[in-house]
Design goal:
404 residues; five-stranded antiparallel beta sheet; 10 helices
Length: 404
């Protein structure tokens, strides 16, 4: 989650804030697969499976459309594989939605990189919200997070981790497998926070975005994870984002800390298996996917929300899946933005993007929000209430892959 910074309320003052449901899409080059060493240094030769329309450049067999997109962005495949993706200079950090590419680097996300990944935020002071406008209920009483019993696949099959690279290094968030209306029973869609895919107003799209469902499914200890194999930490595989979408408001307003853009801090990632898989979708692989409810009851009518994620900041270590249950209250960061859900919860950084589940409008469990922000002292979490902008984002990703 992103913690709240004391100065952000002042920074919001006097600035026009956009609330129209304009969406930002990110086209990811999923068809390209590059091989690399386990630590991502790129010391091995690269190879990729050819498609019927692939063009052979002597070292890679790349579908023509993907090859053209990479050329448009000036990306040299050899250099990218060998570490050019680590160049975060302003001119090379792609910010605009239509410019993003995310070539798969096979083997990059090995157990060590996964274990060492951190949440992209800094702990700060809760006093940021002292000048809030709109409807804000009293700060909820802290709720101690409870560990989910292993196996996570049996008890929380839709939960997992999102890994990505940023200028600060390897990073991690939490995420949820959600249903795809256009492909019932065969979804490849994952819900997470906007700040888990894009840095917001002062940055661009993160790189090497991948989802690992049921990370550390057996609930191994931190010590045991030091020697765990990839199959043990990622028993259902590594799934790379071949398309992602977040709100335009997040891209324009969002920051690494503070509450700016938090009411629109959500994203959908469409994924594909790193190694081709067995032809099964993500939903078929994990055996479950949550519906998303965009007509969830207003806060006074919600009896309980369950937030789930992999907190990584002290006293947690990022290896264990946790959940919090609480009756939500309201949090308004700006009178012109939608009011957020807020619950008591002790989960820390690393839980960002994790799903919030409640009884939906049809009486069944559904995803109604995701973890976005919380104070440096922990104790509570806040997540956006999903509205028409969120539904438009979700529907656009579903329609993009209709019939595939």
């Amino acid at each position: 989650m992103r913690s709240i910074r004391p100065s952000s309320t002042t920074r919001r003052g006097g600035r026009a804030r956009r609330t129209s449901p304009v969406l930002a899409a990110v086209a990811l080059a999923s068809a390209l697969a590059l091989t690399a060493t386990a630590c991502g240094s790129g010391d091995t030769d690269a190879s990729a499976g050819a498609s019927a329309t692939a063009a052979d450049d002597g070292k890679f067999k790349i579908p023509d459309d993907i090859k053209d997109r990479l050329k448009e962005h000036g990306i040299d495949l050899d250099k990218w594989r060998d570490g050019a993706w680590k160049d975060w200079s302003k001119d090379d950090w792609l910010r605009e939605a239509q410019d993003y590419v995310n070539p798969i680097i096979e083997g990059l996300w090995d157990p060590d990189r996964m274990r060492d990944a951190e949440e992209p935020d800094q702990g700060v002071d809760e006093s940021d919200i002292s000048g809030d406008q709109g409807v804000t209920d009293p700060t909820p009483e802290p709720v101690q997070a409870e560990a989910v019993a292993p196996s996570y696949h049996a008890n929380a099959p839709t939960a997992g981790k999102v890994f990505f690279d940023s200028p600060e290094g390897t990073m991690v968030c939490s995420a949820t497998v959600v249903q795809d209306p256009a492909n019932p029973g065969k979804s490849n869609m994952v819900w997470t926070a906007g700040h888990c895919v894009h840095a917001g107003k002062k940055g661009g799209w993160y790189r090497n975005i991948a989802f690992v469902p049921s990370y550390n499914d057996a609930g191994r200890s931190a010590k045991e994870l030091e020697t765990a194999t990839k199959e043990e930490v990622a028993p259902y595989g590594v799934w790379w984002g071949d398309w992602a979408q977040t709100s335009d408001q997040w891209i324009e307003q969002g920051g690494s800390t503070g509450g700016d853009g938090a009411s629109y801090d959500y994203a959908v990632i469409h994924v594909t298996p790193e190694e081709g898989g067995d032809g099964k979708s993500l939903e078929e692989t994990v055996g479950s996917a949550l519906p998303v409810d965009f007509d969830a009851p207003a806060v006074p009518d919600v009896e309980e929300i369950t937030a789930i994620g992999y907190p990584a900041a002290s006293p947690y270590d990022g290896g264990t899946l946790y959940r919090c249950q609480d009756k939500p209250g309201r949090l308004s960061l700006d009178a012109s933005d939608p009011t957020m859900y807020r619950i008591g919860c002790s989960m820390t950084a690393g839980s960002s993007g994790g799903g919030w589940v409640a009884t939906g409008s049809d009486g069944k469990p559904a995803l109604v929000s995701n973890t976005s922000i919380g104070p440096v002292t922990s104790g509570w979490l806040a997540g956006p209430r999903l509205d028409d902008a969120a539904k438009g984002l979700y529907d656009a990703v579903s329609e993009k892959f209709s019939g595939r």
